[in-house]
Amino acid sequence: MHHFTYRGGELYAEDLPIRELVSSYGTPLYVYSQATFERHFTAFDSAFASIPHLTCYSVKACSNTHILRLLGKLGAGMDIVSGGELYRALRAGIAPSKIVYSGVGKTRTEIHQALEAGILMFNVESRGELERINEVAHQTGHTANVSLRINPDVDPQTHPYISTGLKENKFGLDLEQSYEAYMRALEMPAIVPMGIDCHIGSQLTSLSPFIEAVERVLAFRERLCKAGLCINYLDLGGGLGIPYDQEEPPHPEEFGSVLTKMLAGLDITLILEPGRVIAGNAGILVTKVQYTKKTASKEFVIVDAAMNDLIRPSLYQSHHNVAEVTPMGRPEHTVDIVGPICESGDFLARNRIMPAVEQRELLAIFSAGAYGFTMSSQYNSRPRAAEVLVSGQHANLIRRRETYEDLIGPEESLP
Ligand code: PLP
Hints:
The protein has helices at 18-25, 34-46, 65-73, 83-91, 108-117, 127-140, 175-187, 208-226, 252-263, 276-279, 312-316, 404-412; strands at 4-7, 10-13, 16-17, 29-33, 53-58, 77-80, 99-101, 121-124, 144-149, 191-197, 233-235, 269-272, 283-294, 299-303, 322-324, 332-338, 347-355, 362-365, 386-391, 394-399. It is built from 12 helices and 20 strands. Helices cover 30% and strands 25% of the residues. The chain starts with a strand and ends with a helix. The radius of gyration is 23 Å and the shape is globular. The structure holds pyridoxal-5'-phosphate (PLP). The site of pyridoxal-5'-phosphate (PLP) has 18 residues, from helix 10. Pyridoxal-5'-phosphate binds at residues 58, 61, 79, 102, 164, 199, 202-203, 237-240, 273-277, 370.
């Protein structure tokens, strides 16, 4: 459910016509709906209201500080994966005691920054990382709360690039390695083993992989408890999918109800790290048609957004619905919607049946709120797009469009 709807023949973000936003801010333009963010976060978080829990929004999905601040005000904690994300979360006023830190490659500097900030816990992904956190914490007079990320070897039935809980993936430790690591953690002076962490993948459209993972995590928790280590924090990561096209992922309420039943009666605080389900359908990317072009075998719509603005179609062959901002009712054609970048992999949609469009028309690329702007780059020396957050009739520019100066600034301001 989102707040991008057609009224009187044109697309609105909440109560503002997209056309007006484009007049003010140009294209390509990321447009987010505040009411959609609020609705998604509240629906997700309240699904776990009956048990102790903390919903840590996954910053990587959409990391604009204005969005983080908005979610923070609703009670969100944050799941971070880098020093940069820690910086963003703190700048957005998120309490460090609500921040969990995931990711396989934390540097000494990043670990030190997180310890200084006083985050809730590290989700540790290897023995080497555990040793390093202990060392840095010991040397700097801190203690570090940790969860070990266990890799339960469950198939999340999603795109291979966003599967993380299979034994061939780089994430986490298998159950045996995890057990040994917990036993080692008990001997470490600066480590408090406080939780168990698990994130099996992203864009999951069925509950069964989650259920399988939770069963394995709970059995593992039992085993640790028998060895004298009783763990009270369980971090189940993110991963709940969204409808991009025909998918019918479980509603957060159903997700919450199944998980809360599985954890009922246990002395556990649940941590969740949703990203896509909060941000995905809360944002669209608006682009302007530059040219249409017909070759012997294809019709192309060349727009001013490209893979540098939204890489998901190129990277994962993912589907985003594309529609005219002002539908003209022309006959349908099969087209490839492509950007100006010098790569054949630069497409936003392929073999898409849609009404014919003309130069200067605006198109909306839906479900672009998660892993959209955050994965954007300056490839082909294209300044990154602007981001605007709409609330009712108000538009708030939350990131200005980059300039050519922004492209070369770091190359010129050298010591
Ligand atoms: N937590 C971790 C450790 C992740 O790697 C990710 C995404 O890959 C997430 C949470 C968020 O996942 P999603 O956006 O699918 O909810």
